[in-house]
Every structure is written in structure tokens, then in C-alpha cells.
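Repro:
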Amino acid sequence: MSLGGIARLGLVMLSIQAGAQVAAINLGHAPGSVRSSNEPLPTGSVTGHVFCADTHRPARLARVMLRPVPVSRKDGPRADGLSFMGFGSGGNGQTGMDGEFNLTHVRPGSYYISVQMPGYVDPINTVDHHDLDNSSDEAQARVQQKLQMIQVGSDSTSIDLTLERGGALSGVVRYEDGSPASNVRVLPMMFRDGKHVTIPFTGSLNATDDRGQFRITGLPPGTYYVDADITLPSTRLMRNNDPEIARSSRRLFNVFAPGTFSRSKATPFEVGYGSERNDVEITLNLSGLHTVGGHVAISETNKKRQYVSLREAGVEDGFSRSAQADSNGSFTLEDVPDGTYCLIITGSRTPVAMVTVHGADVTDLNLAPASQQSAQ
């Protein structure tokens, strides 16, 4: 091995050791602060068993984690993300062949329990994560309607849990010519009572295989819209050497089943415990898209570059695009499907213009803030 290779290897080893030291320093300490190396580890522990509701068998090799119940800043430090991963609370382990787990060195406090096992619903995912992270009494009351909270002191606390088999969504993603779209990430968007519910990403990355097929498991009951994400390099780099524009040199497409860029026009899929929908088909129709562009007026008092946003008119959760104008005020919005859109620029809360795209590019727009329009 070359000297450079040894040096690089030494750097990697140092990084790993440093990470281990950070974990050891934080272990068992209150979130948001650092435990002294002389401070003894907490003596609290959480033990129990995890079972599968459908088989009545142990949930083997499931990952068990403690998530501190958030508290308001006036009452104490607020729980942070590291605690959920086990670095802040000591609560991170795995079940054995009999479904038993034992989490040691847990600091005193109140916790929810997360259990991750392929195909099954993590109890944490049955609640809205906006509520889960909210320390208000109202939000925590909603959480505790579905999740059991445990109190940990200086001794052992015991709890048994049962996992429900989650729902599944499976199907295929194709290009418009019928060929399979491989290596495309597919994400479920969950809605309850007509509102988007934030849940963490379930399972491993749901990328399509060589046949364009995918399967998403462990979903809690609800209504889902299935979104295929694809990223392509920007064509603007070939036409413009502006370094500011080059920084955002990618084109992100969000295509909802069956093949629309607008969530409001997508097909909803109902999922329940243990159910499977295997009829999800998404067609990536990336041709026939257009460019919307033009010029934004630059005021004498504000020389900052303007951002231009395009939003589908009259549609909630419709198609949208945004881009930053260059130093001369020129802007380009790529990959816009046919439709009617409103245009909003920096500092304007209301649309400054409307544009209809139908079968051709629209590149001659002249935009100005509402204040300048009224002055004219």
C-alpha cells in the first residue's frame, strides 16, 4: 500500500474512533448537553418482548429504540434527533430469537418506543410526527391516545409490545415508450382526513429494480399517493455559464401514479393493516414538457437576484417550479407541462402574472413586482 493510501486509511480509522468517542460522551446524558467523562452512566434500563400480531411469534432481530418525550424549553431541554438514534438516551438495541430486548444505561425520563422490523408497522409511525416532536400538551395528548409512554428511573422498567403487519404498495414504473424505469426512487405520501401526514421513510430505499418494479411495506393504515422521483442534469448548463445558476444544476421530477405531475390529479390508494395493493402503475412521460422564461425587472433600490415561482392555478398541491434569475434578471423554468399557472416573484405575496402553456414554450415574459406595476 502506498504512503498516501496508508494516510487515507489512518484518516478513516481516526474518523471512526472519533465517532465512537462522541457516542460514548453523549450516552446516557440529557439531550442538548455533553456528559462529563467522570460522570457515571445512568443505571436505568428497559426490558421486554416484542411479538408479531399476525403470527403470535416473537419479532426476531427487530430494532428497538427509545424516543424521549419532548418537553418545553421553559421546563427543561427539548429532546433532539440524536436521542432517537440512541446516542442521547442509551436506548438502542435489538431483539433476540425469543423477541426479548434489554436496553441499558438509560437516563431517567419519559419515552416512547420505536420498533423497526421489515413488513411491520413501527408504533411511532401511527402518529403524526409533527405532533410527536411538538411539546405542547395538546399535541402530546393526541400522541398518547395511540402510543404508550413509559417512565424510566434508576432501576429496570419492563414493557411488552405487539407489532401489526403493515400494508404494502407494489407495482411498476415505466417510461412513456413502455420500457421499465429502473433505479427510480418511489415514495408513499400519506394522507389522513385530507391532510398530509408526516411519517419517516419506511424500510430501505424503495428503488425500482431492473424490471421497473417496486414494493413498499410496513405502511400504517391510511390513504396514500405514490410518487416516483427522478433527477436529471440541467440543460441550462449548456446555455449559461452563470456560476450561481450552475449550483442548482439538476431537474427534479415528481410523478404521481398513474402519471401526473400534480398530486391533486393523482390516484389515491387505501391501505389497511396486512393489506396489499399490487396495482400501482406509474408512467414517466417526460416528453412534451416546455420552458417558461423571460425577464424580471430589477429595481434601483434592490439589486438582489429575484426568485421566480410558477404554480398551477386554482389547484391545491398542484405542479410547481421555481428558479433564480441571473444578474440581468433573466429566468428559465424548465420542464413545465401544459396548463395555466400563476407566477410569483421575491417579495410578492400575490401572483404578478398568469401564463397558459399549451404545446409550446413561453419565453417572452416580462415580470415586475406589484409595486412597480402600480407605479407604471
